[in-house]
Amino acid sequence: MDFEFEDRFRDLMKLKPNEYWRRQCRATFQYDRIGAKLVEDIGVETLMWGSDYSHPDGVWPESSKYIEEQFADLPADVVHKITCENAGKFYGLIN
Fold it and tell me: For 1-60, how does the pLDDT look when each residue is reduced to its tens digit (9 = 90+)?
């Protein structure tokens, strides 16, 4: 989208599409091995992990296993943002 913006639509919007995404959107997921590899592109501040407790299609009670598997290659501070901090900020539980 940013490519098309730069190429053809600069005069229609003030910000690039990815800037609107990072400013206004949030995404949740419970298991997405590919998504975990795209954290930098998607924006760590836009991602929130969830176990989907208590729904039967969720990963709970094996949440720790899924977190460890899909976030094994990410730094601990990034994992903390995705699994705790971002949701806390979104819901106004922390600043």
Answer: 889 998 888 888 889 999 999 999 999 999 888 888 999 999 999 999 998 888 888 899
Residues 63-84 pLDDT 10s: 999 999 999 999 999 999 999 9
CA distance 17 to 19: 5
State the Cα–Cα distance between residues 45 and 25, nearest whole angstrom. Answer: 10
- Separation of CA 6 from chain center: 25
Q: Virtual CA dihedral for 58, 64, 67, 70, nearest 10 degrees?
A: -90
User: What is the residue extent of each domain of the chain?
Assistant: 26-90
Provide the residue count of the chain: 95
Closest CA to 42 of 90, 81, 92: 81
Q: Tell me the HSE value of 65 on the side-chain side, using a 13 A CA sphere.
A: 5
